[in-house]
Amino acid sequence: MVEIVAAIARWFQLAANMILLGSCIFLAIASTRKQAYLEAWIERLERLFPWLAITIPIGLMVILMTTLVQVTGNVSSLWQQEVWLGFIKDTRVGQIWGWRTLFAVLLLFTIFHFRKSSRTRNRYIFIAVIATLPLIAGSLASHAAAEEFSVSAILPYALHIILAGVWFGALPAFLLMIYENHKNAKTKRFNVPEYKTLMRFSSIALPVMLLIILTGITVADRIFDSYYAALVATPYGWLLSAKILILSIILLIAARVRAHWLPLLASGPQAENTGDSRAGIRKWVRIEFFLALLLLFLATVIANTTPIKHALIENWPYPFRFSILATWNQPNVATQVWIGVFILVLAAGVILLGRLRNWEFKRLISIPAILLMSGLAVALPPLTIQAYPETYRRPPVPFDAISIANGAALYAQHCVECHGYQGMGNGIKARTLSTKLPDLLTEPHTAEHTPGDFYNWISYGMVNTDMPGYADKLSDEDRWDLVNFVHALSRGYQARILSPEITPNKAYVKPPLFSYADNNGVNGTLQDFRGNKTTLLVVFSWSQSQARMEQLKQVYSRLNEQNIAVLAVPANELTTDEMAQVAAELPFPIVTQSAAEISSSYALSRRTLTHPDIIGRGKIPDHMEFLIDRNGYMRARWIPSIDQSGWSDIDKLNQQISLLNREQMKMPYPEDFVR
């Protein structure tokens, strides 16, 4: 019940805010003549302004009350002043609510201040500007802003909601003007100012609607974060799909009004033509306004629904999914898709032709609709591949060194005889199988399929192949560890593009995460350095790496000054005496717990363009160093046995560190789970 009250309050206050904004914009474009603002419909519209302005702070107060009840779980908290003040003062949601309320009160004061003043265009423009402030403040609480509180995150959403207010909010003024002029018998003839106002608004509404769609796509893309399957498999996606459907109907109605009814209004001085056109416009714009109210209600519900990024698809409901990556190189796929695209373009061309030839509405809609369906029927089927209930299931196990190391052990026990030591499908049993095994290392097999696909195959096997299922042999967590290891293999091979020199402002390689304990008893994770320090991860062998470790010891203070965290990871387990010697000699932390897992998982990134190391079991270097930037991406790597001098020239290492420190690149942190 509380959620329903909150949704209705959000809807009412947002609708009132948008109507104030849109009505003032409509009045600002209504005419350039002062006497135009003396018309009866404007008088009626302005009488609504105080009520709309009062609705906004009342709605915000109801929103705050319902939020407090939801947070505290207790209605009695509404009578405790310290709960109100604490929520407003100590939470971001409360602070944003405070700003929204402040701007709403400012808008209310502005409406009452100008109530008795003369009506001018500048007055309406000023009120419209003030009306945008609560909307902008509200955008700070959006899903997009919650992910990244920055101008780039907030601006598209703020523009989206303001532009929606310009369009939706103007519809009541549009309807009121049509209704008053139709009711007045003297104006049943062609009215030039009325027609010019409507055409002026229609001309503005077209680019506004296009910008609403553009900003909506921008916001949605950020919220989806390439997780578009959720559009048809989550509550958020279903609501958004319904919103898109309603918007499509609204666009068709708007196009009909602009193309048919508005020209009919100016078709001649005959009273019947003018009356019929006003009646038609009033009818269709009423429907448009009703649909817009429904659209706005859906938008308020969506804004408080778990966003796509955090919505879990436990069971994908369809036996297929679309994947350009996995299908494009198949025979005839590209040809068939381009034929379908051509038919879709032809459908758009038919719409333009029909507009030019003045086709009747049914013909204008039916022929392009048939072409549209035909184009989709031709283009989409080739892009489909088989899907499973687990296809879009998100891994419950993080992509970390512990999981990868366990997956490697399980792979060696259950998979290596068929898939080979390095996952290339060349195990000792591979030639005896009825199907050719995929190359999990060098081919983009893992990129073409989801982690859930691999989980399904590992759990239940693959139909019409020799791949068995392991659901009865391995735990759920073990199977996800195997998925992580397969992805670590592929990511490690992709890391061959790295060298001792970074590529400025280019970040691709996502390293395994890890947690550790060092020789000083300090616990930490790789993520601790994000947004703060570049990490130099040194995987060493003792005593082969002794000379290099001595060199790093000599420059450690300089590295500290450059805001570099150095972590030393033993490639092999050290004896008690060796650990004591290393800890005594080196000033930087030595990983003591999880060292074996970190070393083995990062050894998967040992391959280079000149030394692909894909024969047999592969060879693990004695010493490797990795530079991981402040965003969490692996940016450079030095392997002395392959790259030779490399970072033994400390000036060269300092140069790479300086380049990373000067970068202003803002990137989302790598995901904690494979996807």
Strand arrangement within the widest β-sheet reads: 6-5-8-9
Low-confidence parts: none
Please count the helical segments: 24
What would you call the shape?
globular
Q: What kind of oligomer do you see?
A: single chain
- Binned, the helix content reads 55-70%
Structural class: mainly alpha
- Over all CA atoms, what is the radius of gyration? 32 Å
What separation lies between the terminal Cα atoms? 37 Å
Mean pLDDT: 85
Please provide a written account of the structure:
By secondary structure, the chain is mainly α. 58% of the residues lie in helices and 6% in strands. A hairpin with a 5-residue loop joins strand 8 and strand 9. The protein starts with a helix and ends in a 13-residue tail after the last helix. The mean pLDDT is 85.
Write the layout of secondary structure elements.
Blueprint: H1 2-30, H2 40-72, H3 81-90, H4 92-113, H5 121-139, H6 143-147, H7 151-168, H8 171-183, H9 192-224, H10 235-265, H11 271-302, E1 320-322, H12 324-327, H13 333-356, H14 361-379, E2 384-386, H15 401-414, H16 416-419, H17 445-448, H18 451-460, H19 476-494, E3 515-518, E4 523-525, E5 534-540, H20 546-561, E6 564-570, H21 576-585, E7 591-593, H22 595-602, E8 624-628, E9 634-638, H23 640-643, H24 650-662
Parallel strand pairs: 5-6
Antiparallel strand pairs: 1-2, 3-4, 3-7, 5-8, 8-9
Helix pairs in contact: 1-2, 1-5, 1-7, 1-8, 1-11, 2-4, 2-8, 3-4, 4-5, 5-7, 7-9, 8-11, 9-10, 10-11, 13-14, 15-19, 15-22, 18-19
